Amino acid sequence: MRLPAEEIRPQEIRPQEIRPEELDGVDPAWSRFVEVPDAAGVTRRWHVLDNGAEPTVGTMLCVHGNPTWSYLWRRFLAQAPTGWRVVAVDHLGMGWSERLDAPRTLPERVSDLGTLTAALEITGPVVTVAHDWGGLISLGWALAHSDQLAGVVLTNTAVNLSVDAAPPGLIRLARTRALRQTVCVRTPVFLQGASALSRPRLPAAARRGLELPYGRADRRQSIGDFVADIPVGPDHPSRPAFDAIGAGLGALAQVPVLLLWGPRDPVFTERQLEDLLHRMPHADVQRYAGASHLVTEDAPQTSTDAWRWVGDLGLGSTGSQSGGAAERPASPASEPTAEGPSGAARPPRRPWDALLARAGDPAPAVVELSGGTTTTTSFAELERRVRDLAAGLAADGVRPGDRVALLVPPGVDLTVAVYAVWRVGAVIVVADAGLGLRGMAHALRSAGPDHVIGIGKALVAMAALRIPGRRIVAEPWPAALRRALGWGASLPELEASGRGRPVPELPPADAEAAVLFTSGATGPAKGVVYRLSQLRAQIDQLQSTYALTGADRWVAAFAPFALYGPALGVGAAVPDMSVTAPGTLTARALAEAVQAIEATVVFASPAALRNVVATASALTAEQRASLGTVRLLMSAGAPVPARLLVQVQELLPAAELHTPYGMTEALPLADISLPEIQAAGSGHGVCVGRPRPGVQVRLSPLDDLARAEGELTDRTGVTGEICVAAAHVKERYDRLWATERRSSRNPGWHRTGDVGHLDDQGRLWVEGRLVHVLSTERGPVTPVGLEQRVEGLAGVGSAAVVGVGPGGRQQVVVVVEPVAGSDRVRDGLADPTLTAAVRDLLAAGERPVSVAAVLVLRHLPVDIRHASKIDRAAVGRWAGQLLAGHRA
Fold this sequence. Notes:
Elements: E1 31-37, E2 43-50, E3 58-63, H1 74-78, E4 84-89, H2 106-119, E5 126-130, H3 134-144, E6 149-155, H4 169-173, H5 177-186, H6 189-196, H7 204-211, H8 221-228, H9 239-247, E7 257-261, H10 270-279, E8 284-287, H11 295-298, H12 302-311, H13 353-357, E9 364-370, E10 373-378, H14 379-395, E11 403-407, H15 412-424, E12 427-430, H16 436-447, E13 451-454, H17 456-464, E14 470-473, H18 479-485, H19 491-498, E15 512-517, E16 527-531, H20 532-545, E17 553-556, H21 559-562, H22 564-568, E18 571-574, H23 587-597, E19 601-603, H24 606-614, H25 621-627, E20 632-634, H26 642-651, E21 656-658, E22 661-663, E23 666-671, H27 674-680, E24 686-691, E25 696-701, E26 720-725, E27 732-733, H28 737-743, E28 750-758, E29 764-769, E30 774-776, E31 779-781, H29 784-790, E32 796-804, E33 811-818, E34 828-829, H30 832-843, E35 851-856, H31 872-883
Parallel strand pairs: 3-4, 3-5, 5-6, 6-7, 7-8, 9-18, 11-12, 11-13, 12-15, 13-14, 17-18, 17-19, 19-20, 20-21, 33-35
Antiparallel strand pairs: 1-2, 2-4, 9-10, 15-16, 16-27, 22-23, 23-24, 24-29, 25-26, 26-28, 28-29, 30-31, 32-33, 34-35
Helix pairs in contact: 2-3, 3-9, 5-8, 14-15, 14-19, 23-25, 24-26
């Protein structure tokens, strides 16, 4: 006779069934049973994983969600530092704990956890770690045991069901009684669905471990009960407790919190992360790009990052885990105090000071060239528009500290929006179109903007990509259509509404001002947070490095640099080109932009300059003459070959050609001119010149496995990761606590991710990216110097040096892109002549290497933003597949 749907009788679990020795990553000694009376006086048998350590420092209490169990925390137990006890519980009815005859509600489970920790004599300090609905139970415990609480770590969870339009589909389907029994209990659909959310698929051992306690229907009843206890409706029995926990999080304002998040989770979305940050704005955040619901499985480094964070709490002997003592820079990060003639302190300086100084100036501030049309905006008009829009934005609800994403093409409208947002005290979020649509979507979701200002088609695309934030359209759109789309006012309306309104009070000089995204050349683009004071220091460094004055005017062929013009008091022209493709800048477009603003300065990426040189034959005599008025050219974004600069010099005969060294996190850090490049000659890497005044450079030497773990040094000839300190270095990486922690583990220094060395004249040479350094049996091999030598061979356009094989035994492989028109155009193994030439060349010299293979690839992949940085990771994968005999 079949039992009714809700009457599957649980069978007791026998200890011999557990067999922890068969579980990957689990020490059998951790597994134990504890018998504890619950609040009703009924003795319950719990299963826990407990490392049994004497908690001389503290206890980490790990709480799983549904449908997992304590196995989820195996790495946290395995990595526990000395003095830390780690206890990972199995909820009653879950894992290997006692099966129940009746469901448990949220308040009962919070109470259960409290009775268990009392029985286990856990007294504090305690750091709680939790996932999924275990987050609620853990937070409920934390609020009830605040006297023991030292820290809170949460992975994907939620305390507010109203931020998403509806619960995820699988949970909605499982809300009905019969369907819930089928999906969650009688069949393993819900159980296996949790693992199936991971991409790529979890290893078989991990899937088996997660599912092992739930092999029969009678073992899965509490999976269904957990789903039934989700308080979706206001009259749900667990809803009061659920709401009380969410409302009580303000009590944790003094408790350190770390949020470890999988942004691809369809269950607990980014909106839930934003809600948690609204309730706990002091929380540290680490988002793991690509990770989904089971973030601790998708990103195994969560355990390492969590323990590093716990170590930084200073609770005891775990220390900061910084990897050794570090030389501290001589206070480069604060804005120097200045005094006026009377000795009184000058008011703090902000990025828009130069624009205010030219508020009545009719000279061109921004010139746009597009499709044969030139539009000019004066400094006076620009300042008025900024003032009006700032007042309109403030009246419309944009508040200091709000994040405002900008999806407006380079030009005057973008410039007005940027400075108006700053003037309100809000934070601009800039993910330029060069990242591509997917890259922009990833970037903007990670930043969590409160408002999005964009052209209409961009706003439509952002809605489809689930970008949060209130919409403000940049162009005039019909009010009825805006309402239908859920958009607010347009920028022209806000600017008009701000006329005559008071401008908001000035934000503090150290207020956060910008989240700017890296190019994503070595992974997902990272958000870089700047304060107003750091932007001001960057502007000052640019001004002093290149002697820029109000008499200068520049052509910004790299979109973000057009925004620096008003901050420098310099007129800027945006040439007619595609902002997503630097190589679309032609010589004619450059000359027209120079003529339009009578430019004295040009900034362009190497890819843009290559196309300028390639199209120079189309220039008229008048256009060539106009290029002769340029006094300075800057090119950055990737190494700039000297031979390219020599060709550019022929087009700009009066210009000093400079290549500043820096990155999104800090620019400029060093600078070098063409004559200095020529004087430096060939060396192992790219000479980027001497550090700028106020910039300190040190190296963290590479060890035999190509790790930069050595103490910082400024000794000449030592190859290591380049570390810098300066007033214009970024504040931090945004919502990437662990990434920031690694990059700044030497206090006061930013680890750039580049490797290089200092020569005996104090010049810095860049040898590549740390992630691209080869780890060979003979030690680390840096790629750039070798690539430069190969690129000197006849018929070679560019080259990439990559490693194939396991770390410590990688083989050196050289991949060559032939020059245009070469007969070496088939992808695959290079011909014997080229192979011999490359091998002989690199076997000689100061740093000889043995080359395992030479390959040909017609087009080496490059980054999207600058179209100049070779994607060595992609090249390495291609080479490995080819040499393994697979179709690449």
